[in-house]
Amino acid sequence: MQNDRFKGLGVAMVTPFSSSKAIDYSATDRLLEYLVDGGVDYLVVMGTTGEASTLTDDEKHELIAHVVEKNNGRLPIVLGVGGNCTSSVISSIKHFNLKGVDAILSVTPYYNKPTQKGLEMHFRAVAESSPLPLILYNVPGRTGVNMSAQTTLTLANEVPNIIGIKEASGNLNQMAYILRDRPDNFLVISGDDGLALSQMAMGADGIISVVGNAVPGRFAEMVHFAQKGKFAEAAVIHLKLVELIDALFVEGNPGGVKAALSILGIIDNNLRLPLVPVGEATLQKLTMLLKSL
User: For residue 43, what are the β-bridge partners?
Assistant: First the structure.
C-alpha cells in the first residue's frame, strides 16, 4: 500500500543555520546523508523541529527544493504545512512546488483554540484542497488545543485524502481509542520519542521522531524491532536511550537535538530567536550521554 511508505521511523529534520542565521545547506546535506545512512524510513521537512515558524516563505520554498534534490528519490518526504488560518494553509500548499514530496503534515491550528467542529472543518478544507495525502498532527502541548479521538476518527472515516495522524498528545488512552476504531490503512504515528515503543506495542505504525536526528541508527533499530513484534529486543535499546531522550527535551525542542548534532559534528549549534541554544549543564550532559552510546 502507498501508506506503507510512512510506517517505521520518520525523522523531523532540524533546519541547520550558520552563525549569521542563514540556512546552512552544507550542514543540511550532511544531516540528510547521516539519516539515510542510519536507516530511517522517511523524512519530515519543516515541522516544529525544523523551526518552520521562523522561516520566510522564500526560505521554505528553497529548503524543500534543496532537500528533494539531494534526497534524489531515496526516501519518501513529508512536508510540514500548517497554521491557524485555514485559507492561508490552503494557499501555502498551492504555492509549493510539490514535485518529489509525498505527503503533507499539517498541525492543528494554534493560538485561536478552535472547537472540535472547527478542527474538523479546517482539516476537511485543507485535505480537499491538497493534491497530496494529508497526515494530521495533534500536539496540544504546543498548540493549546487537543483534537479528540472522535474528531480524528470522523476525519479518518469521511475524508479519503486524510491518511493518518501524528498523535503527540502523550495520552495513551486517546491513542488507544484511535487505534481501536480506525479504518483500514489509516496510519497512527507516535509523536513522542519516549512513548514510541509503548505506543507501537498497542499497534501504532511508527514514529515521527526528534531524537532520530541524533541517533538514527539506534532509533531505527528499535522501531524496526517493534514493527516485527520483537518488543524485548526493542526494549533493550529504548532503555539505553531513555536518558538521552529526556535530556534532549529538558530545555525544549529543537534546542536539545541541535546541541546533540553539534556535538556529533554534523551541524553548528545555531537557532533563530526566540529560541536559544541550551545551557552549559545540558550541553555537558548531552556530551556525556552521546559518548556513552
Answer: 11, 77
Sequence-separated (6 or more) residues with CB below 8 Å from residue 255: 271, 275, 276, 277, 278
Preceding amide of 160 cis, omega within 30: no
Burial of 291 (0-12, 13-18, 19+ CB in 10 A): exposed
SS3 211: helix
Active-site annotation holds for 137: yes
| The residue to which cell 498528545 is assigned | 169
254 φψ region: left (φ > 0), alpha (ψ -120 to 50), beta (else): alpha
Distance CA 273, CA 283 (A): 19
Categorize the per-residue pLDDT at 257 as very low, low, confident or very high, splitting at 50, 70 and 90.
very high
| pLDDT tens-digit readout, 128-140 | 999 999 999 999 9
Q: Which of 7, 60, 166, 258 is an active site residue?
A: 166
Catalytic residue among 7, 34, 60, 137: 137
CATH topology (fold) of 2-230 = TIM Barrel (3.20.20)
Task: Give the closest residue to 52 by CA, choosing from 38, 67, 42.
Answer: 67
Q: From CA 169, how far away is CA 176, in angstroms rounded?
A: 12
Q: Per residue in 67-106, is it b (16+ CB within 10 Å) or e — as a string?
A: bbeebeeebbbbbbbbbbebeebbebbeebebebbbbbbb
Q: For strands 134-138 and 103-107, give the pairing.
A: parallel
Is 166 tagged catalytic? yes
**37 by DSSP, 3-state: which?**
helix
Neighbours of 121 (CB within 10 A): 13
Place of cell 532509533: 219
